[in-house]
Specification:
The complex is a heterodimer. Chain A contains eight helices and five strands. Chain A is an alpha+beta fold. Classes of the chains: A alpha+beta, B mainly alpha.
Amino acid sequence: MNLKKLQQQKIKDILDEKQKWSLPIVEKDASIKKVLAILTGRDHVWVVEKKGSKKLCGVITESDILHLLAPPRVPRYTFGKRYSISLLYKTARKAKDIMCKRVARCSLEDKVGDTLTKMVNSGLRRLPIVENDEIIGEITVHYILQKLLGKI
Amino acid sequence: MSMETLLLLVGLALILARLIGYALEKIKQPAVIGEILAGILVGPFVIGKIFGLEYLSPETEALGKLGIILLLFLSGIEIGIDEIKSASKKGLITTCFDASFAFLFGFIVGHILGYSTIVSIAIGNILVATSVGITVRTLMEMNALHSKVGEMILTVAVLDDVFGIVILSVTLGHGSSELLLLKVFLFFLIFLATLFLASRIKNIKINIPNFVLTSSLSFLLIFSALAKMLGLAAITGSFFAGLLLSRSKHRRRLINFTRQIGEVFFIPLFFIWIGASFDFYALEDLGLLVLLFIPMAMLGKIIGCSLGARVCGLKGRDAFAVGIGMMPRLEVALVVVTTEISMGVFSKELAQQILAATVLLVIITSLITPFLLKTVYKR
């Protein structure tokens, strides 16, 4: 597929069903153990309000887990509680303790080009597709690349 | 100061600060003390005396003040509105005890030494905020970060920074008390209006590279200027700008960006400037001030936090450990004393003495807290 053409397309035009139903999701009160289990096979997990709900309230990525696994480092200038969240010291107990609460998002009507720009500007490799605050799918660089190369 | 002297001294100060800071981190002491020591080295009593180079200048002061603005912005954005809102009732009660006693004990020091009411209030302000970096490291070593004591200390430490900034704004702004209250009210009204507006603005597409970072930095500086124009301290503006931006979906990126430019350059320059401003001659006249200031600073926290924690259901030994853990003063205490000095609260001679006493308080509390905490908590 032509890249320029792909950039002009809307998310809804390139999205297949798998991107909608195979989402890695946990509820915010899920245990860390459950989050870690999902992350053994995926590189991120979307956090929703409660079981059965799709209301998006955060995301946990490999990078977050990396910080939890590494020996905790208290920064030079310490404020807030973020630096004290640790697996080693049992201060990370639930998904909500470690999730990133403010999540950049996109919608089905967004163009692929705009979505990629958003990813570049926010330093992200994936965005949730959200409608009425509910997650209905996800778009990743990996998926867009597969689409470009005609592999899906 | 010539440009080449400025570049030379700032360059030298930065590398010294990092090396000494790192060495101190290795022996489980805060890097900030290393930055202050580097400041003493490049200041008038060492390099200044040997080579005749003067570090203290309007240029280095301006760089240091930008460091304060970034430090308080970092504090606001890392603490965040959500963390304040989610603080437990117990944490809030303990913070009220903590801040009241710390402030009161500082005020009493000023009163006993015969200083004016405004100077006594200023001394009280210095003692409100805690820095728990050293306590957190100690609790990690003891594997007690997840204990009731650890959780209480973390919650109270978050809240008392906020209390410290608010108390500073309310007590030391310019103008009569009625006018000051009006200005504080106006500032918080602007804060709430901005918060409301920010929550309404969604899905604005601006595809200018780095616009988020530039506009956030610009917002920080304008909000700090606004606070200053209203007669409050610029740091009040920068702290609240941080709180406002803590709700942004770009929060993590902003924190990383601020840490990058702040930790590497501007913030160390503030602590270096503090070290360079440390006047050894002021130590000669410190006597009674230090004898009262440091013990009262420690007692204020121990009594206030222990009482608060006790009221909230912690047992005697645990409540006492909370008090001990809340003793260290560092970043915010130094920011508050510098702000008060630049607001002209102290006479020149007294300013040197208060600054020296605060630096000593920072060093002493950082050194003794781990030992005391281990003793109290293990027993």
